[in-house]
Amino acid sequence: IFSTNGQRLFLLSEKGYLLVWNIIAMNGERVIHLDREYSRYQKFALRRTNGLAHILAVDQRGRVDILSLNTFESRTFFTGRPDQDVNAMLSDDGTLLAIIGREGVLRIWHVGAKDVLFEANLASEKIYGPPELRFSKDGHFLIASVSDERPHVVQLPISGDALVSTAKAMIAREPPVGDD
Q: Where are the alpha helices (H) located in the chain, listed in sequence order?
């Protein structure tokens, strides 16, 4: 994949070597080893995020790495069970990570806290091929298409501390702490 400005090319090998190629200088800037195995047949093995300085790498077991292009550090998130057909999407502001696999279980993570804020099974049966994910432009909704059925729309809480407390309360079905 190419960087948003088109000056870098990112190549990921099956053994987890990520090459950052500088197109202008015509040389390799860096090689990063993600200790994972990737498939050349995965639809979403490597994915650019929306204008942020991050890329997502999804391995054959369903682990998702968010790799910072500034520090070249990564954070790992897991779908919950081994799954090669995983799709992941980072929200435009970089606070939420949505992950869904072939089993149809959608997890929305708070990236900073590394907490699961929302989890739901969206499929009535096994899905063939990776599901599609998309955050709305305003960041208030996540659209997940798991089959030919109509897409699922998940309304997201606002952001920051309100996001964490509201989302956790939605899961626990209790009012957020501090709300009277």
A: 160-172
pLDDT of 114-163, one tens digit each? 888 888 887 766 666 667 888 888 878 888 887 666 778 888 764 445 45
d(CA 75, CA 34): 11
**Residues forming a β-bridge with 101:** none
Q: Label residue 27 exposed, middle or buried (CB < 10 Å: 0-12, 13-18, 19+).
A: exposed
Whose tokens are 């996540």? That residue is: 142
| 85, burial (CB in 10 Å: exposed 0-12, middle 13-18, buried 19+) | buried
Rounded to an integer, what distance in angstroms lies between the CA atom of residue 41 and that of residue 31?
22
Task: Evaluate if residue 176 carries a pLDDT over 70.
Answer: no
